[in-house]
Amino acid sequence: MHLNILVVEDNNTEKAARLLPEDWQVTYCDNSYDAIQLIKKEDSFQLLMLDEYASPLSAYQTFDYLKSEIKTEVPVLVLGEEGENGILEHYQNKMAFIKKPVTSNDIKIINDLVEKNFVPKEVSDKAYSLEYLNVISDSNFEFIKETLIIFRTSVKDKLIQLREALGQNDFKSVAEIAHNIKPSFEMLENKTSVHICDLLNNRAPKEEVPELVTELESQFDKINTELENDFPELL
């Protein structure tokens, strides 16, 4: 498996990185703050490797920040002396600890951690993503299911109102409705729909509005179809 790993550089992590397979891509940065900035810019990292007490944020603080502020859970490989008692259990399958110095036998720990969290990038062509809902609900399926039901019914009603407003050339209402439903599409990470809502809310040229509304309806239909296929219980 070809991996893309981000390493916060120090003497120990450098030594650990040298043990990684040659076909793994390794990116180095100077501290945990720089690591956070890189992950903000690029979502392809499959593992973050850093010392337990890296600065300015420790390994545990870095993971918490990534989860709460950036809404991502890049698995973290912690290098340390003993590991804080009991703390790794809190992070479950998202973190692993390797005692320094790292040896070639530790490669299996790295592989296991990444494989548990590996999501093929091919899923990104779907019309929706549940990543945000999983993060805010700690993967509570009942919460997610109820949210999806509300999304389908409320956005459907709003799109009907949007089409009616367009038929009456009420462009002010079109903008208000688009602004109202934008967070619903953001929640499911449909960037095309979010962009269309922005255009409608910012008073796109009147001649472009009908086409934008049609495309927004098309995106909603696509999301709906995929949800029905993925979650038949929503029908």
From TrEMBL:
PROSITE patterns: HPT. GO terms for biological process: phosphorelay signal transduction system. The modification Phosphohistidine is found at H179. Keywords: Phosphoprotein. InterPro entries: CheY-like_superfamily, HPT_dom_sf, Sig_transdc_His_kin_Hpt_dom. The keyword Phosphoprotein applies. The keyword Oxidoreductase does not apply. Residues 140-230 form the HPt domain. It comes from the Bacteria. One of its GO terms (molecular function) is protein kinase activity. This is HPt domain-containing protein. The lineage of its organism: Bacteria, Pseudomonadati, Bacteroidota, Flavobacteriia, Flavobacteriales.
